[in-house]
């Protein structure tokens, strides 16, 4: 098992890694952009759901919304999306940077999400569905996006959970009404797809 990242909390365990039994590049430089092929295994109450997703390796900063939609299809509670996406993206960065993957057109990756406290997690998941279907993402209104306040980062730097890049001290960031701070371009792109804060599920409108 290579390039493994994990996070644990009271309800979910998420593990992301690159499988060992795959074909490496043949040493030739490809003119095509590399793709990351992610296989998902989501275990709920002993029943494992399986799915896959293919993403371009040169567009990591745009993955969050796509991954969040995929997790919603598996009924993973929305308030866990930020942590799961961070685990997936951090592992992907590590895998992509490895020399053995430098000439691969398709780079495989496995993501396992397991419920460790089934009763509570299933209860949370139920709030995301209507008649057994994942809750659709609703874009925020243009007026509510324009009303977001900008702030100067003064004390300590942090990480924007959408792009997973540092928010540097002295830089300008955008603050949601729930007080969570993001890069301006990142949060606007997110809110154009979903009106819910990626971290706390605060609904903008």
Q: How would you describe this protein?
A:
It is an enzyme of class 2 (transferase). It comes from Xanthoceras sorbifolium. Keywords: Metal-binding, Zinc, Zinc-finger. This is RING-type E3 ubiquitin transferase. By secondary structure, this protein is an alpha+beta fold. The chain has 5 helices and 12 strands. Helix content is 24%, strand content 30%. Strands 1-2-5-3-4 form a 5-stranded mixed sheet. Strand 11 and strand 12 form a beta hairpin. Helix 1 (63-73) packs across helix 2. The radius of gyration is 18 Å and the shape is globular.
Mean pLDDT: 75
The arrangement of helices and strands along the chain is: EEEEHHEHEEHEEEEEH
Q: Please give the radius of gyration in angstroms.
A: 18 Å
- Derived from helix and strand composition plus strand pairing, the structural class reads alpha+beta
Shape: globular
Low-confidence stretches: 1-10, 25-31, 128-135
Percent in helix: 10-25%
Q: What spatial order of strands do you see in the largest sheet?
A: 1-2-5-3-4
**Total helical elements:** 5
Distance between the termini: 43 Å
Tally of DSSP β-strands: 12
Q: Supply the number of structural domains.
A: 2
Q: Quote the beta fraction.
A: 25-35%
Main sheet, how many strands, which sense, barrel?
Answer: 5 strands, mixed
Pfam family, one: zf-RING_2
Protein name: RING-type E3 ubiquitin transferase
EC number: 2.3.2.27
Keywords: Metal-binding, Zinc, Zinc-finger
């Amino acid at each position: 098992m290579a390039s493994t990242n994990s996070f644990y909390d009271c309800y979910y365990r998420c593990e992301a890694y690159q499988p060992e039994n795959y074909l490496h590049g043949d040493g030739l430089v490809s003119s095509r952009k590399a793709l990351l092929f992610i296989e998902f295994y989501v275990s709920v109450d002993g029943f494992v759901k399986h799915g896959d997703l293919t993403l371009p390796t040169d567009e990591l900063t745009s993955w969050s919304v796509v991954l969040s939609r995929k997790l919603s299809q598996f009924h993973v509670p929305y308030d866990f999306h930020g942590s799961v996406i961070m685990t997936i993206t951090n592992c992907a960065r590590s895998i992509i940077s490895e020399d053995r993957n430098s000439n691969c057109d398709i780079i495989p990756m496995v993501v396992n999400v397991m419920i460790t406290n089934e009763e509570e997690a299933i209860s949370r998941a139920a709030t995301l569905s209507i008649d057994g279907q994942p809750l659709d993402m609703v874009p925020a209104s243009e007026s509510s996006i324009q009303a977001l306040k900008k702030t100067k980062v003064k004390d300590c730097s942090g990480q924007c959970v959408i792009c997973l890049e540092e928010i540097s001290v002295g830089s300008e960031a955008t603050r949601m009404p729930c007080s969570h701070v993001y890069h301006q371009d990142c949060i606007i792109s997110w809110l154009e797809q979903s009106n819910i804060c990626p971290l706390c599920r605060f609904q903008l409108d």
